[in-house]
Each structure stands twice: as structure tokens, then as C-alpha cells.
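## tool: complex_structure
## caller: assistant
## args:
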Amino acid sequence: MGPKSILKSSAVPADAVDARKPPVNEQHLQVALQHANIIQDQKNVEQEILNATLELLEFPPDSKADPARPSPSDAHKFKTLVMPFQPNDYDALIEERNCADLCGYALCPRPRKKVPSASKLHFVDSRDRGVQIVPKKMLEVWCSDDCARRALYVKVQLNEEPAWMRRTGGGQEIEILVENTEALEFALPLRLKSKNKVQGELKDEDGEDIAAAWALADEALAELSQERGDKDSMPRTELIKAKIEERTNVKTPSAPSAETTASSAHMAIEGHIPKSDAKKTKDADDDEEDNDWDD
Amino acid sequence: MDSDRRDNPAMIRMWRIYRTAKEMCMDRGYQMLEEDINISLAEFVDRFGKEGDHEPDRSRMGFSAKPSEAMLIKYTDPPTPKVPNPQPQIGEIWIDFSGDENVGLKQLRDFMQHLVSTSYYSGILITPKPITGMALRLLRGSTQFEDGPRGGVETFEEQHLLVNITKHELVPKHVLLSKEEKAQLLERYRLKETQLPRIQVTDPVAKYLGLRRGQVVKIIRRSETAGRYASYRWAI
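## result:
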């Protein structure tokens, strides 16, 4: 151990402050917690996106899957995984898939297109834009133009806002460009089942109408709460309180006594007495006299 | 180097990178052979050149290194009552030269799995181009990543190993301190580690030495007035 310090131990005054002003420290704690939670949220979302990317890297599981007609389970999984993405995360996913020599569209199992020549830049002749010079890399992103269209159709729907800042939690449903729309819509069994459970008793002859009505109402309510920004998905403590507290015990102001002004007059700078000095004096003569002039 | 045929620039480039990688391992304290470090270009071409064309064959260039005794001691925590004989926080390293142009998540994960399956403690991947953003993100979290090796994975771009930066005259000597030396230093100057000056782990020299967060390096500079001046930095 090092030699004992000759300085006054600072533990006692610190404790005294704690006891006197708990609300301040509590507020500090809350502020710290709030910010820590925000950072934790960010980390969680980043991890989630990384895991989703890792999973989508080996997508789809079936090597003969058709990107135009994905199986319902694949489509559903893709949609849920891609939900927290920002457009640049999606770009990163495409880049990763290209590094693995796959087509950039995550529902397409085919390898990406290879341009036979070795030159870095290529001429591309398109009808609407004329001849353009395009880097080779850009040409090798997709397996076909259809896949490019499908992938970019998803990208434009992604939310620019990072997922931890989205007020409604996950984000809205993402549509994908498919040919077998009916099959996909038919296959949303999870949600239908849970609703049936709740309204199970009502399933009579006209019970179905009632169930449908209930479902509509639920949907409308959910939409409304989304619009209002109700944070049921991410409950957070708010620092700003809506409730206003009145200060109850307000003393009548008293005129300053001549004594106090005299004792601190020499400290004043243009009539203002610096706080740090005031505190020091107070600590120093705490045990001698109790004529506090700043209470 | 006076050879009758003109050497392939790619070959010369790779030769320099290879030598810097070897020197880096030696400076970190791994056991290295003297003749390996001072390998001549002709020998390098012989060993790693592809048949026919004189392109370097990156897949054959990978090598492993064992930590030396001194390094093992340096990386071992001082014994405590709870842990009477602590294990060194270092082990055999595998240095790999990536043949793929673009290194993404897939390649990095393959590399990590390779390290785990061959039970190397840590690894270095040297890539021709910068790795992708997602792969960087994976690396950052790889200490918690259950698939990765215990000692973590570092990546270097080939371009950054062309020259050994520590040999530049403006780069002072950096010496890593062991846990024990660090404790002595802090006691000698009655400091907390947070009161030391800092160095980022992404600093080029810190990356070269493979510093980990919390380690302290001694930096020895020449000084006109004092002859030699030592300062200490805490890696964050």
C-alpha cells in the first residue's frame, strides 16, 4: 500500500451531499440509464442485423428455389429478417452475397452473372438511356435484370430511420415482387390462428362476419396506436414528466441582512459571489459556528 | 538484387508483404527463424511462385508461429490466491494470405472456423482489398462470437504491410508491458490506469503489435535534452 494521504478524506462530504440531495442523484441515474439503454438498443439492433445478414447469406435453403415464386415460408422469413434493415444494411447484404458469388437478391439461389471480358468498364446499351459506361462490378451484382428489379423493389421500401429510433418498433410490413401472390397471402397461418383462438366461441353461422369485424377493428386500433406512436414494443422510461409538480413550501423572501453581505462582500465580482468559494468557506467553518448565510 | 530476368512486380510486392508479416510476428515475440525473415527474393520466388507464370501463390504462403518463452511470461497474469497458476493469454498463431479478391462475411467465417478446427489461439488474415463493412462488424463482436478463436482475429490489408512502419525513423520504439510491469508502473507513479495517456488499438503501431484493450506500452523516444525519454500509453 502507498503512504497514507495527508489530504482530508473526501468520503464524508460526498456522503453528506448524497443524503441532502437525493433527487439530483436520482435524476443523474435516470439520465445515465436512459442513455445506456439507448446504446444497448443500438447494439442489439446491430447484432440482430448482423445475424440476419449471416442467415440471408445462405438463403434460400433450397438450391432450386425460384426467385419469382418463392415458397411461403422463405418469403415470410425473408420479410421478417429484412425488417430492421436500413437501405445501407441492405446494400451490405448484397455486397456480402456477391462476395459469396451469389446473386444479390436474397431469395435467389443462382450464382451471379459473370461478364466474360476482363476489362474494368463496359458499354451498356439501354433503350431509354442510350449507351452508358458501367463498371464491371456493377454488372456482376445480379443473376438477371428481373432479380435486380425484385431486390431493389425491397430496398426502396426499407425505412431510412435506424431500427432503434423507429417509434413503432419493427417497422412496417415489406412487400416482395412475386408472381404467386395468392399462394403467399393464403399462407399467413400464424396470425389467423391466433385470432381464431380469441374469437373461437363466436364461430357460428354468422360468427365469421363477427370475427371479420373484430379483426378489422383490431387492425384499425393497431394502426391508430402506430400513428400515435404508442411505444408498446419498446417501453422506455421518459425523462420528461408530463405531470407538473407545484412547489408547496415557498418561504416569504426576507431582506438580506447587512452581516451576510459584509462577510462575503470581498468575494464579490461585480456584485456576484462565485459559488465554489462560498462552498469552501462553508465547509471550513461548519464545526465552528452555524451562521450559514446561504441556506 | 541483380537477376538476369525481370521479376514480376506482383511477386516483389508479395515478397515485401511476406517479410513484413514475418517481422511483425517476431516483434510481437513469436519464435521466428532468422533465415525466414531475411528470405531473398529469389528464394521467395522459388518457394511461392506459381508454375509457369510468375504470380505469387497466396494459398501456400500461410504460416504459423509459436510464442517464445518471454512472450508467454509477458502474457501471463500474475498468480492470485484464486488462480494460483494462471494460463498465458496467448498461443499459437496462424497467418493466412487470402487469395480471394473480396473478403466478406463468408470468407472471414471460414477462416475463423479453420482456426477453431485446427485449435490455433489467434489468427491474422491478410487481404488484397479492404474487407467489407459487415465483416468488420463481425470482427468487432467476435470476442463474444462463439465460433471464433479465443485470441480473436486480426485483419490487415496487403497495402499496409508493404513497408514495415516501425522501421521508419520517426516511429519511436514501442514496448509492451506485462501485467506485472504495468502494476509496478502504476504504483511507482501512484496512478490509476485511466490517468495514463492513451493509444487507440486501431493505431497503426498498436495494430502492428496486436495490442489489446487495457494493455500499456512503453514508448521510448530520443530526446535532445534527456537522451532517452520514456512515456507510457494505455491502449483503448
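## assistant note: Chain A touches chain B through 14 residues (CB under 8 Å). The two ends of chain A are 41 Å apart (CA to CA). Handing back to user.
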